[in-house]
Design goal:
The complex is a heterodimer.
Chain A (H helix, E strand, L loop, with lengths): L1 H17 L8 E4 L6 E2 L1 H8 L13 E4 L5 H11 L3 H13 L7 E2 L3 H10 L3 E4 L9 E6 L1
Parallel strand pairs in A: 2-6, 3-4, 3-5
Antiparallel strand pairs in A: 1-5, 1-6
Chain B lengths: L1 H19 L12 E14 L13 E16 L2 E12 L3 E18 L3 E11 L30 H4 L1 E13 L2 E10 L6 H8 L6 E16 L3 E15 L10 E15 L2 E8 L2 E5 L8 E4 L1 E12 L2 E11 L8 H7 L7 E14 L2 E12 L17 E12 L1
Antiparallel strand pairs in B: 1-2, 1-18, 2-3, 3-4, 4-5, 5-6, 6-7, 7-8, 8-9, 9-10, 10-11, 10-12, 11-14, 12-13, 14-15, 15-16, 16-17, 17-18
The chains are: A alpha/beta, B mainly beta.
């Protein structure tokens, strides 16, 4: 069983290496978020709606790009280790049953930056690792 | 007449939805409310038996689902949510538009890694993997859910009910835990539920008493999900005029086990339970009975391309664990033995054409009529043991 598991993990890794979208930029948050870095586990918990508060108990507002947006596909696979369709399944299960609100979907990266800049507690992602006014980039560890 | 009035309602509802859905787009900050919905239409064809309309040797179009879901974060710790549902499924479900659920969720304890809350109102009932979102086509593993565990015949009982649930979630290094524990008053007062508990539509009414529901879910770091669901529901029968039954009691108990393992693009799922049905005190014309059902399925899903998924499932249902092949039942009642079981092998294909549109095709080969919808197949002896069914469904979301 563990062999099969690692075999599949290797397959996933291989897909990443062959993917042309391998260069993915940063995790961005609203400037009022206190954190400077974020763990992969924590990022995954936020995007699977399990972690709803920042360490200082400020509510997290989660932003996403459309399921088939290349930047979303790359983010889901590389940063979260999940396929976009699995994320969508989790969001649908949680939101339609009334247990959580689904992440807020924006149409492109410009809107992503604008909404993250304007929303207290917001988290999102972009394709370029750049510094933007009023947005903080978190270091992933 | 009724149908046209209903569809009028439906288009009104849908136009309202379409107008409302981009509402939070002009609001740059985090929205306090969300609206989402879906609409789906199915086509069904079958051999020998009907499923959701006149599907035998023809095509039934009478499988329609549409829903409007809203949630509002009224306070940081309080969220209100609800769903309006339109559903038509052949003769078995002709209720059309209905309020599915409406609940308030008060999260009175929240930390970074844990939450504790109380939800109350008309709440969604936890039952296995799929029940809470069983009417949202995108969340199901097929056009139909495995009928053994998620019997559409008794769906009213499992959907939502007035009551309250205490719930909690915690993320730990060895996985994430969720639990739900609550008390509800389930809805037994529907023809299909009466049919499955009392074998027929009776002049009296079945009234749900208290029911206990509990579910424990553990998501391990190995991409494994393990789940236990417990349900214990009771109902009292009030005889009608000229009734042959006396004031009896029914009870339903189940412990449902769920296991799911996710490997890269493959998902393996199994659920199994032995629901117990007890009928007592209905007088000489309906002897007391205690039977244990056996119900379960094994299912594999393979996402072979980003937008394409193949599903293979084997589903089994035995109405009486001690009389699996129905011989005893046939001997004592003179009715066909095949109504006591059903084994369904299903092959399904899903194509997520766009993020908003999903197309599905599905083929079922069924041995037995154990969960065949009664209202679509009113003549008992016309039902045939071996039958096939194909389904197509288009589902849109916004």
């Amino acid at each position: 069983m563990p062999h099969a598991y690692f075999f599949f993990r290797r397959l996933v890794l291989l897909t990443f290496l062959l993917s042309p979208l391998a260069a993915l930029g940063g995790i961005i948050v609203n400037s009022d978020v206190e954190a400077q870095r974020i763990s992969i586990a924590s990022l995954r918990n936020i995007y699977t709606l399990r972690q709803t508060l920042w360490p200082n108990r400020q509510p997290i507002v989660v932003f996403v790009l459309p399921d088939d947006h290349p930047v979303n596909v790359a983010f889901a696979k590389e940063k979260l280790g999940l396929y976009p369709y699995r994320l969508r399944q989790t969001w649908d299960r949680m939101s339609f049953s009334g247990m959580a609100s689904a992440p807020i979907q924006v149409k492109d990266e410009n809107e992503m930056r604008a909404r993250v800049r304007a929303t207290p507690g917001a988290i999102g992602y972009t394709s370029k690792d750049m510094v933007y006014d009023g947005i903080k980039t978190l270091r992933l560890e | 007449m009724t149908a046209s009035r209903r569809s009028g309602w439906n288009s009104l509802l849908l136009s309202g939805l379409l107008a409302a859905s981009p509402a939070w787009a002009d609001e740059l900050a985090g929205p306090r409310y969300q609206i989402q919905g879906f609409a789906a239409q199915g086509l069904i064809g079958s051999t020998h038996n009907n499923f959701f309309g006149d599907s035998r040797d023809g095509v039934s179009t009478r499988f329609t689902e549409a829903g409007l879901h809203g949630s509002w974060q009224a306070l940081d710790a309080v969220r209100l949510s609800g769903q309006i549902l339109y559903r038509q499924a052949g003769e078995s479900d002709q209720d059309g538009l209905r309020a599915d659920y409406a609940q308030a969720d008060w999260q009175f304890y929240q930390t970074e890694a844990s939450q504790l809350g109380l939800k109350f109102g008309k709440v969604k009932l936890p039952y296995g993997l799929y029940n809470e979102t069983r009417d949202v086509p995108f969340t199901r593993s097929g056009i139909l859910l495995p009928q053994s565990v998620y019997v559409d015949n008794s769906r009213d009982l499992l959907l939502a009910a007035p009551g309250a649930f205490l719930h909690g979630a915690s993320v730990q290094p060895y996985g994430a835990f969720d639990f739900l524990l609550g008390w509800v008053r389930p809805d037994f007062d529907s023809p299909s539920v009466e049919y499955s508990f009392l074998g027929n539509i009776r002049p009296g009414t079945l009234k749900g008493q208290g029911a206990l529901g509990a579910r424990l879910r553990w998501d391990l770091p190995t991409d494994t999900t393990l789940m236990l669901t417990h349900a214990d529901a009771r109902a009292d029968y009030s005889p009608g005029i000229g009734d042959t039954l006396t004031a009896g009691k029914v009870r339903f108990r189940n412990l449902l086990l769920t296991a799911q393992q996710r490997f890269d693009t493959v998902t393996l799922t199994a659920e199994y339970g032995e629901p117990r049905f007890d009928n007592t005190g209905f007088g000489p014309y309906f002897p007391s009975s205690h039977r244990t059902i056996q119900a379960g399925y094994l299912q594999g899903e393979w996402r072979f391309l980003p937008a394409w998924e193949l599903m293979l499932r084997h589903d089994f249902f035995y109405r009486d664990k001690r009389d699996k092949n129905g011989h005893l039942f046939a001997l004592t009642t003179g009715l066909p033995a095949h109504s006591m079981f059903a084994r369904d092998t299903t092959l399904g294909l899903r194509w997520d054409t766009t993020p908003n549109l999903m197309l599905r095709a599905e083929f079922h080969h069924v041995d037995g009529t154990g969960w065949l919808p009664g209202p679509d197949n009113p003549v008992f002896i016309d039902r045939e043991q071996r039958w096939n069914m194909w389904l197509l469904q288009a589902a849109y979301r916004f």
